[in-house]
Write a structure and sequence with these properties.
- By secondary structure, this protein is an all-alpha fold.
- It has one domain.
- Helices cover 66% and strands 2% of the residues.
- It has helices at 7-28, 34-59, 68-78, 82-100, 104-111, 133-136, 144-160, and strands at 118-119, 137-138.
- The chain has a two-stranded antiparallel ribbon with strand order 1-2.
- α1 (7-28) packs antiparallel against α7 (144-160), α2 (34-59) runs parallel beside α7 (144-160) and α4 crosses α7 (144-160).
- It starts with 6 loop residues before the first helix and ends with a helix.
C-alpha cells in the first residue's frame, strides 16, 4: 500500500487480505492447527485495525481538531444518515476493543446488542491472555470485515461529497 492510493483502493486492498484470513479461520476451525488458526485471527484483527486507522488518517482533514469518529457520527446523523452513523460507531468501538482491550468501548458494546459484532462477555478476567482482543470480541464471524469495509466506503463517499 502506497501513499498515492485512494481510500477506496486502500480499503479494497485490506479487505482482500482480510478475506484470506477469514477463509483460513472458517476452513481452519476443522482442519488447521490451533497455532495457524490463532495466527489468522490475529492477522484479521490487525487488518481491521489497519483499515479503520487508514480511513481515519486519510479522512481527518474533513474536520477540524477533535475526535474524528465522534465528529463523523454527528455529521452523519445531522445529514439523516443515522443507520450509517450507528454502524460507524459500532465498528469504532470494536476497533477500540481490538486496540485497547477491556475498557469503556468494550462495556458499551456489551450494553449495545448488535449483529455487527459478536461480543464475548468475560467473567472477571484478570490475566493478560484473558484480556486478548479475541477473548473479548470475535471478528472472524462471516460478514464482519465486509460490513466494516462497506461502512467505511459509504462514510468516505459521504465525506467526499458533502
Amino acid at each position: 500500500m502506497t501513499a498515492s492510493q485512494s481510500v477506496p483502493e486502500l480499503i479494497a486492498a485490506v479487505q482482500a487480505k482480510a478475506k484470506t484470513f477469514e477463509d483460513i479461520i472458517l476452513a481452519g476451525q476443522a482442519a488447521s492447527s490451533a497455532q495457524d488458526l490463532r495466527a489468522a485471527q490475529v492477522a484479521l484483527e490487525l487488518a481491521a485495525v489497519d483499515a479503520f486507522t487508514l480511513f481515519e488518517a486519510r479522512m481527518q482533514h474533513h474536520f477540524k481538531r477533535g475526535p474524528f469518529s465522534r465528529k463523523l457520527t454527528a455529521a452523519l446523523k445531522e445529514a439523516g444518515r443515522g443507520d450509517l452513523a450507528e454502524r460507524i460507531h459500532i465498528y469504532y468501538l470494536a476497533i477500540n476493543v481490538l486496540k485497547h482491550g477491556k475498557g469503556a468501548s468494550y462495556r458499551e458494546l456489551l450494553d449495545t446488542p448488535t449483529a455487527l459484532v459478536h461480543v464475548k462477555p468475560t467473567k472477571g478476567a484478570t490475566t493478560q491472555d484473558e484480556n486478548a482482543p479475541s477473548d473479548l470480541i470475535d471478528i472472524g464471524v462471516p460478514g464482519f470485515f465486509d460490513g466494516l469495509a462497506a461502512s467505511l466506503l459509504q462514510a468516505h463517499a459521504f465525506l467526499e461529497h458533502r
